[in-house]
């Protein structure tokens, strides 16, 4: 049996980095006022990085007094210090680093062919820096789309945008988005956006991208024919990606018709024929954007609705493409309808599959459950248990949480839904409404109850808000 002492080896190598009297490499990184020199050992750099192995074996490296001198102006001192720590000690601490430095480390890892580090940084950005990514989508997209090894982060960005595009398309950086990235987004069927909003966003982007327009000339009433032709040229490859027949006739008249001159003639004529004669287009036959879950909720953002729809399809993950298009219609809201069981039953009975959302008064957490059978009970029936294997309960840390959401699927299908006229919703006596109270109990009929219903397990409370939505698919 071979005994391994990696910890002491890592510690010794780390000491070599901090006390490098026998170094034979000087690496200058950074530029302008942010330049720093690092001393290192060529053998260690060669062994750990294929990039340095190749670079030090070529004849174009410079030497002075038998010392290798190397310059990397495109890597900042902070980032390179993390790289050397990884190379020498196999350690990297990202917990206190801002997103810009972590993104810089990702780029440097790719350039220096540090595959293990690149994969770690990519995963860290996705799991721990999702909020920063959302605030800097354009920067991140423009960076990672240049890196072929960052497919995981590319997909994360695109799927996050598709799940909830509104913050992205209304950001100040959106008009500077690279044309190929915008094309890829508009082409996707799972982009969760109203088609009229997609058109508005495209026009906004096109105006900023077109010479002679933009901030200096954004008043359409002052445009001449050359301005319209220039905008048409900018939008030429994008216009066919707009599903014009999915735009309401009112929005088409108000938002699309004024830009008739920038739309290819055959596309505009087919759209007009659709609105006037209800004739389907013959050449522009893009499918409607599918897999989009839409909701008008005070408790959760649209991107969480996509996650719930994914759970309905048994896709346990965030931002997964959906097989169907989901519509969530509000049936009941306690703040406007009253927190009463009778009101709940009058509005929610016999409506088909339903989603329930609950918010505690003293927490940002959102709790809920999916009832695939619908609520059916009235006072003429005795209490009864309903069988289904598709029901589940869940929780989000807040209205936007996509990192720490919890789900518990039904554990005993015979006791999935309890129907009794004197109660509202009841998910296996685990999560239920009785009187004006919400109850959380660990009955064993649903999995993962302790995590889902934390920290209010085995207590009851008056909810701040309850929402129930009827679910339909197409």
Automatic annotation (TrEMBL):
Pfam families: BACK, BTB, TLD. CDD domains: BTB_POZ_ZBTB_KLHL-like. Residues 23-96 form the BTB domain. It comes from the Eukaryota. Residues 298-472 form the TLDc domain. PANTHER family: BTB DOMAIN-CONTAINING PROTEIN-RELATED, HL07962P-RELATED. This is Serine-enriched protein. It comes from Rhizophagus irregularis (strain DAOM 197198w).
